[in-house]
Design goal:
The chain has twelve helices and 15 strands. The protein is of the alpha+beta class.
């Protein structure tokens, strides 16, 4: 049974993880902590059925076998004030009169704990930002991240944004599950007042998972644009920390805290942003212009002699999709090989004075065989 003390009719009982204050008549008037497996389990599984049986019988004597076999439950019901001892009999008490004494303090304590945890979270967010701004952390103002460290770092730094998120995502075909998780995280950031802008390549417009992500974040207030040209991945959080790839190896990244370097990266982002086309704009002229920009970039890379892998990467498409683009150009110019295609493109530039590596001016019309 419980061990307790009473002082002028008021005491505290502590047993199996429950700490309560009891008045002189043994009734609970405050609950400070209720363990998930302690007396509540006893109350739910044994004491409650005992209460119901005693209620059905209109009370039972002290020597009744029912209460003799459930001595611990009887003591619990007495402590809670759900049983009363009257003339050598146990009789039940209206649970409504006891419920408020047990549930209300728990609800109040729960609200206090939520408020307390939120306050701690805000403090740690501020400390995290100070840590990321500090030039003395992570071996200076630039640190290298490898493998899982990259996602772990992003998972910590991105949700802590307070003012602004800038992201450039060149790769298409991102995992749908990751995009769904990113959408939840980014929508949460935007709704708490963070300004978010993202740049994709034009090819992302044809990716279903990316379109779903963009629809969700733009509805919340984020802005997304696309570019024809290739760019490296970039994430800037509150202009205090930036993450970029470390060379060609996507398995390593650099976390940058140097304000001068971050300002330089933000300037590059802003210039790209100004040239970008709104992702959600479905205007026919805009769509046509995007197609022309992609075509011109494809021709430019072919003329410069880049490999198929490099061209596909810079266009932001899969090698298979890129091969389809090249096949379309071969049919358009009525040639069979890439060498022939390059030769015909060069002849067209000489004959027409129009560089096929540049998008046509407004009103101009392509007709390579005319």
């Amino acid at each position: 049974m419980c061990a307790g003390s009473r002082n002028r009719g008021v005491g505290r009982i502590h047993e199996q993880g429950i700490l309560v204050a009891v008045s002189g008549d043994g009734r609970w008037n405050q609950v400070d902590r209720l363990a998930p497996d302690g007396r509540r389990q006893l109350f739910e599984e044994t004491a409650s059925p005992l209460f119901e049986e005693i209620a059905n019988r209109g009370g039972v004597p002290h020597d009744d076998q029912l209460v003799l076999e459930e001595e611990e439950s009887v003591h619990l019901l007495l402590e809670m004030g759900l049983l009363r001892d009257e003339d050598d009999r146990y009789v039940v008490v209206d649970p409504q009169s006891v419920q408020t004494q047990v549930v209300a303090p728990l609800s109040k304590r729960g609200a206090e704990l939520i408020e307390e945890s939120s306050a701690w979270a805000r403090v740690f967010d501020n400390l995290g930002q100070a840590y990321r701004r500090s030039p003395s952390t992570h071996s200076g103002q630039i640190s290298e991240l490898r493998g899982e460290e990259i996602e772990q770092f992003l998972a910590a730094v991105v949700p802590s944004a307070q003012q602004e998120l800038l992201t450039a995502q060149p790769q298409t075909g991102r995992d749908a599950a990751l995009l769904k998780h990113a959408a939840e995280r980014d929508v949460s950031a935007v709704r708490r007042g963070v300004t978010m802008r993202t740049i994709y390549q034009h090819a992302a417009r044809r990716n279903r998972a990316t379109r779903a992500y963009v629809a969700e974040v733009t509805e919340a207030g984020a802005e997304v644009r696309t570019l024809d040209e290739f760019f490296n991945r970039l994430i800037v959080v509150d202009r205090s920390v930036a993450v970029i790839p470390h060379g060609e190896n996507l398995g390593t990244a650099l976390a940058i805290r140097d304000t001068g370097l971050i300002a330089y990266l933000v300037d590059i982002f802003e210039r790209s942003w100004e040239r970008g086309r709104p992702f959600t704009n479905r205007d026919s002229d805009l769509v046509k212009g995007i197609a022309e920009e992609q075509r011109a970039m494809l021709i430019r890379m072919l003329s410069e002699g880049h490999s198929d892998v490099t061209c596909a990467k810079r266009l932001g498409v899969s090698p298979r999709t890129y091969a389809g683009y090249v096949a379309d150009l071969k049919r358009e110019y009525e040639v069979e090989t890439r060498f022939q295609l390059g030769f015909v493109l060069g002849q067209e530039a000489v004959r027409t004075g129009v560089d096929p590596k540049q998008p046509p001016t407004e009103g101009a019309e392509r007709n390579p065989r005319k």
